[in-house]
Amino acid sequence: MSFRSLTPDFAISPQLSVADVNAAASQGFRTIICARPDGEGAGQTPATEIEQAARCRGLEFVAIPVRSGASPDDNAVAAMSAALKQMPGPVLGYCQSGNRAARLWALTQVGALSKDAILMAGRAAGIDLSPLGDRLDAASHSPHSSAGKAPSRRFNIVIAGGGAAGLSTAASILKRRPDVSVAIIEPSTSHYYQPGWTLVGGGVFTPEQTRRSEDRLIPSGAIWIRQSVAAFHPDAREVLLDDGKVLSYDILIVATGLSLDWAGIAGLTETLGRNGVTSNYRYDLAPYTWQLVQGLSRGTALFTQPPMPIKCAGAPQKAMYLSCDAWRRRGVLKDISVQFDTTTPALFGVAAYVPALMNYIERYGIDLRLRSKLIAVDGPQRVATFEHVTDNGTTQVQRSFDMLHVVPPQVAPDVVKNSPLAGADGFVSVDPATLRHTTFADVFALGDVAGTSNAKTAAAARKQAPVVAVNALAALDGKAPVAIYDGYGACPLTVERGRIVLAEFAYGGKLEPTLPLWLLRGTQPTRLAWFLKEKVMPSLYWHGMLRGHELLASPRKAPGA
Q1: Helix spans in 188-284 (H)
Q2: Is 56 annotated as catalytic?
Q3: What biological-process GO terms show up in the record (predicted)?
Q4: Mean pLDDT comparison of 139-143, 306-310, 522-526, highest-scoring range
Q5: What angle do CA 512, 513, 515 make, to 5 degrees?
Q6: What is the distance between the alpha carbons of residues 406 and 385, in angstroms, rounded to a whole number?
Q7: pLDDT tens profile 315-343
Q8: Lowest mean per-residue pLDDT among 70-84, 199-213, 270-284
Q9: pLDDT of residue 132
Q10: Cβ atoms < 10 Å from Cβ of 531
Q11: How far is 466 from 540, CA to CA, in rounded Å?
């Protein structure tokens, strides 16, 4: 059973079994809400049994039954609102399909989130919430929605996004100048070490190792604004929040990350987490990857990579190599047909690393298909449709699968794409060296949302954060940027359990090793790189990068600075 997230703190599911309750507990859920009356269908597990199983695992349980085909009434919405306020999160709501649980959640958000934000959350989970109609329209006309209202708060620096890039930059700023007022806008109460999801999908990490509470990571001296950004108004130096309030700033730093466009592949959202379809690009799905790898002994496994840009361009391959290595160790790889379809014209964007990776493609017997794009998935039939680009044109090919690891297309968030900050590609238009906006001198951007050509990795954000911190403080003082970013990014390519090709490079594909090449054997796989990935990098992330410690990441001075 997979659970579909509307927010980091609320997910939905079809009818649960006792085994599903155990899975929910292992994935970190702390409350279960039943939105389905008993006795609706044959084989339906009674709510009392689900409650008993939940409490045995230390989870809270609430029943708010909504009749099939009916819209939740005001009493049910009030009960749901009370449960979400009183019960610990994350919360898992279930009914026959997940729809009623999602609608209950949506109606509790009226007045707190915009209608568009509610509908978008539903779409991300594969649920159409638009039938709620006028009841959601109230979100646009609530007393909290007040465009044109005077700014409620002002800060020296406003950071949009409390992920790796935003938190690291805030910490670096406050270490340099503790008296600066800094606000971090971030709706999620959980923070994820996303580079660890590859190892969750490979059976090395547990999901819980990659998750921590956001409030534990907010730097001392920063103010956490637990909202989403509704709009950027750089001409007025203002940010509109989802609750209708406005923040004004002297300097804006955009670090919202990018959006995973699951709906960009026909049929994908309906089958994610079941029918053998998985992805390490989501916290709740990475464990399913490992479950599929363990359960597959023969058949066909497909791995895909969409067009660039994407988070960590090596991650699609990492999932494949770790899966193949697990099958090799069990002695079943010879009975599994493995195919890698990537839209790129080469296996990896930096040519120096391709020979070592091709050795593993051949070792594992992987059918490599370049310029091949996944365009549709039929989960129940277990059929994937690809669009192949050849010298003779474009053709469509269908292939059956037993396991399909999908990486979704990735785009700039709508709030950025539709703002004056966006460049032609939808990402924030910045100077690639100073990371300052090309039009608005008081705006900077970093991380996945920045319109730069570097690899979109946590390692890139680690190098960018001090650069933006220094330059933002210079701008606050009315000075020109004093630090530059060279495009550094890193991708630890997990080619087998225990060995990694540590790819480190800057703008233009220039190799940029942190440690001496002789120590990491250049472009070859090493056990040392695996040790760094498994043992060192998580600690460096949680206790170094997010705390403003700039180990091996001190900003380079701009010429003449």
Answers
A1: 197-201, 268-271
A2: no
A3: sulfide oxidation, using sulfide:quinone oxidoreductase
A4: 306-310
A5: 155
A6: 12
A7: 999 999 999 999 999 999 999 999 999 99
A8: 70-84
A9: 84
A10: 13
A11: 15
Work out whether the CA dihedral 232, 236, 240, 244 comes out positive or negative: negative
Beta strand residue intervals within 104-166, DSSP E: 153-160
**Residue 428 DSSP code:** B
Between β-strands 91-94 and 31-34, what pairing exists: parallel, antiparallel or unpaired? parallel
Domains 153-258+412-483+537-543 and 262-411 share a fold: yes
pLDDT exceeds cutoff 80 at 143: no
Tell me: pLDDT of 77 over 90. Answer: no
Alpha-carbon span 185 to 515, nearest angstrom: 35
Domain boundaries, the chain: 4-141, 153-258+412-483+537-543, 262-411
pLDDT band at 129 (very low <50, low <70, confident <90, very high): confident
Predicted TM-score (pTM) of the model is 0.74
| Whether pLDDT at 144 is above 80 | no
Question: Is-cis flag, bond preceding 90, omega within 30?
Answer: yes
Tokens of 92: 């898992």
Backbone dihedral region of 249: left (phi > 0), alpha (psi from -120 to 50 degrees) or beta? beta
Contact criterion met (CB below 8 Å) for 338 and 365: yes
Task: Find where tokens 């990896």 sit.
Answer: 348
How many residues in the chain? Answer: 561
Give all strands (DSSP E) within 14-54, no chain letters: 31-34
Architecture of domain 262-411: 3-Layer(bba) Sandwich (3.50)
Report the pLDDT averaged over residues 181-193: 95
Note the CATH architecture for domain 153-258+412-483+537-543: 3-Layer(bba) Sandwich (3.50)
Active site residue 95: no
Out of 34, 95, 324, 491, which one is annotated catalytic? Answer: 491
SS3 183: strand
Q: Which of 34, 95, 312, 324 is catalytic?
A: 312
Instruction: Tell me yes or no: is domain 4-141 CATH 3.50.50.60.
Output: no
What is the token pair recorded at 505?
Answer: 């490079």
pLDDT score of 521 more than 70? no
Angle between helices 99-108 and 74-86 (to 10 degrees): 80
- Cα–Cα dist 299/337, whole Å: 6
Residue identified by tokens 């009493």 is 75
- For the chain, the C-alpha Rg in angstroms (whole number) is 24
The three-state (H, E, C) secondary structure of 59-92, written as one string: CEEEECCCCCCCCCCHHHHHHHHHHHHHCCCCEE
DSSP state, 132?
A: G
DSSP state of 504: E
CB atoms within 10 A of CB 543: 10
The region of weakest confidence among 53-57, 364-368, 432-436 is: 53-57
